[in-house]
Structure formats: structure tokens, C-alpha cells
User: Fold these one by one.
Assistant:
Number 1:
Amino acid sequence: MKQYKKMITTILLGGVLLGSLAGCGSSNTATAESTILTEASSKTTTTESTGGVLVMGTNATFPPFEYVDQNEIVGFDVEMAELIANELGMELKVQDMEFEAIFGALPNDMIDIGMAGITVNEERLTQVDFSDGYFDTKQMVIVKKDSGIVSSDDLVGKKVGAQLGTTSATFAKLYIEDVKVIEFNKSALAVADLMNGTVDAVIVDAAPAQSLIKGQDSLMILETPFAEEEYAIAIKKGNSELTGKINEALATIKENGQYDELYSKYFSETDK
Ligand code: ARG
């Protein structure tokens, strides 16, 4: 098989802060809820494979990118990984785990790729390599409609919920003054605490935010994004052969229209 010596072209730095909050307020991080792994069976595609198995680590709590539906892990990332595995002539296996565990599973060869709406940032670049980016996103703030919070400036001194180990939690701690960040195993639990008044706001990526407030009339998403980011596929540090192959596959599925087809299956143009 051809060896790809392509350089990793990940050039993204951390997310870009869009809100006007400045200063480094002290932050207290509450302990995470006890670990509950999604009880979903790992899924294997039926594609003929000659090139072995590609194991994707994910955290299926993040619709529409990865979530559990009828005991199966589905979503945009899963379908994209299937397209990539197809390009590589490999069989895809999806492994559900805690979000933070993905970064430890890669160096230990427990998984081959991490795909979980993973934002590229500098801290993670010290642990893993990233493919080229495949999705632009924003961090959004969910609040109760009657909370009086109308912009991220109003979050100063408030309790903010976010998923453990995510950039949502990191940004909240970095950019909101005197914030108390409470980290949850999944954003849905943070939203539940928002509804019952335990936290004042939840920070989460844009498309999952939309899906989390669906059917919840008392909640809304603040208009101004908190930050802008890009998702990429995480790969074991130094595995430039796999990174190269994945970038080739990504380029192919972008060129041949499969990416666009998948995109429109999950998102409308207005989500862009
Ligand atoms: N984009 C954010 C990050 O990389 C959140 C990702 C959470 N993904 C998930 N599957 N739960 O930190």
C-alpha cells in the first residue's frame, strides 16, 4: 500500500473568542457526575473490507454528530467516518467512551481515530495529531427565556454548565469573570440543571445546542456566539501515515459530492 508522506496541515489554533468578556476571573470547577457510559452496542458496518478495521472513538451524547438511536450510535460523524473507512477500504467500528477518554485512547492504540465534534486547539495538539478540518462551528449560550441574560456579558458571576473536558468548559473558565463552571458528563444533564435552576446558562456547540432546546419552550439560545471553532479528526501523535490517508479520503469525499450530500442530510444552509 502506498505510503503517504504528506505533512500534517493542521494550522488551527484555539477557538476565537467572539464575546466581549475579558479578564481572568477565578473559576471553580465542580466535580463531574459519576461516570455513566452510554449503553449502546458498538456498531460495525457491513462494507467489504480488505484493509482491516478502523476503530473510531466517540462520545455519543452530541446530536446530530453522534448520539444513540435505538441502541445504535448514529450521526453526522459516524456517517462521515463510514465514508472515510470506505475510501480506505476498511471496516468501521464505533467505540463509545467518555469524551475526555478519547485523548487517552489514541496514544494507547485503543482506537485509531477520535471523531466526536472535536475542536482543534493548542492543548490537544500537544497530545494528538489532527486531520484537516471538516466542520466549522460556534460555541453558543443557552439560557432560560425569562432569565434576564441577554448577552454573554450578563454571565459574569454566574453558574455555567458545560460538558466535562470540552472547549465549552475551557472557554467559560477562561473568558467569563467570576464564573462558577459546573461540568457534566453530557450537555443534556447541564440543560436539565438549567431547567431546574441549578445553573444559569449552558455553553455548548451550535448544532447540539439547537437539538438540546428542541421542545423546551422556556429555553433560548443567545444570538451572539461565544466562540468560533473547527472540528477535525484526532489521530495518534506521529501517525502521519494514517493522517495522510485520512486527509486524502476527506479531500475525495469533499470533491465527489458525498460530503455535501451528508451535510444537507443533517443541516440546512442556515446552520452554516
Ligand atoms: N467541540 C467541543 C470540544 O471539542 C465539544 C465536543 C463534545 N463532543 C461530544 N461528542 N460530546 O471540546
Number 2:
Amino acid sequence: MLDGFLKESMLKRASASGKVFFNTIDLRDFTTDVHHTTDDRPYGGGPGMVMKPEPIFAAVESVRTAGARVILMTPQGRVFRQCEAIALARESHLIFVCGHYEGVDERVRQGLVTDELSIGDYVLTNGVLPAAVVADAVVRLLPGVLGGEGATEEESFANGLLEYPHYTRPPAFQGMTVPDVLLSGNHQAVAAWRAEQSRQRTRERRPDLTV
Ligand code: 4G0
């Protein structure tokens, strides 16, 4: 699942150009029993299974470098935001632990994990897609990864606001026209219009983002 994602588009180009290195490892390869057991029944009883600590520690320790962040993707983590992506883009080594089920043995949190992140308030079958989401958000910020550098500076959230409306040719399409100011050639007026649109849009759609 993750390999398919990493072999697509921006993440593939980023790794092909040497700006990032990805490695995926399978917990089953770090088990020692014949059945390659990665989970077990919870102490104290109850439904569901809990991921065993030993394979997770062994897997992470097999790749961990000094100072690496070990990130557990879980709905219980703090919600991942653009500011977090910016912070993670400054790190040199991120390790994502993609748990399944309702539980990971608590000692993984106690002794291994440095951060718990959630991509939003919903539950998925495992942490693979959440890890891929975080990886995408972080890697695209690395210098030289996106073609048109400046594009990331003006975009949503970089300034804490939503983006202004965008238009390209034609000037009229199905009776919908481009605002005159964008055709005026007045760069100051364009900037003012965009700033106002950003403010308005943010106030309407994401009042939680307005200060
Ligand atoms: C429940 C993350 C489910 C607990 C993971 C993992 C959504 C997200 C899962 C865990 C996920 C998210 C305790 C590791 C796997 N679903 N919102 N499913 N633990 O980021």
C-alpha cells in the first residue's frame, strides 16, 4: 500500500532526485516465532487485539538513527497541521509507526514513540494512509522538491488564511466572468482584492482560523 504511494508522483520524484530517502519495513520480519505474531490478546481481557511491543521495538531500532523522531499515527494523537509539517520538514529522520487495531502496547508509547499524530477525527483500518499523508505534506516542503518554489509560499495555511479565488483564460465561461480587477494590470489592486478575498473566505469557511 505504502510502496505504491511512494512510487507515484511527487514523492517518487523527490526520492529519485535524492532529496529524500524512503524505506518501508514490515513488522512481521522482526518477529521471532514461527507464526510471525505481531499482536496478542489484551491483559485484563476484553475485545480486540493489542500490537506486541517486541516487533515494534526491534523494527524501529533496526533503522533508528540518533535524533530520529518516532511518530505513531493514531486517532488519539494531536491533530497534524501545516505548522507541524513545516517543523517536521526541518528534521533529518522520521520513523512512522503504522499501527492497526484499537491498541498498541503502552510501552511502545513509553519507551519508543516521540510523537503521536492524527490526520483528523476519523478512524481508518491502519496508520499507513495517515503516515503517507504526513509524508506528502512534509516532503513537498523540502527545498527543490516542487518545481515552482514560490507556489508554496502563497498557498493555503502558509499565511494562516485560505487561498483567494484563482482564474485563468477565458475571461468569460458559461456566463461566468473573471473579476475586472484581475484584468486591470494594476498589481496593487490585484493584491488588495486577493487579500480581501482570503480574509472573507476564511471568515466564512474556517472561522476557527481567524485570529
Ligand atoms: C486506532 C490513525 C486505530 C488506534 C490511525 C491505530 C486514523 C488515524 C489505529 C491506533 C488509524 C488518524 C493506537 C496506533 C489505526 N486511523 N486519524 N488507524 N493506535 O490519523
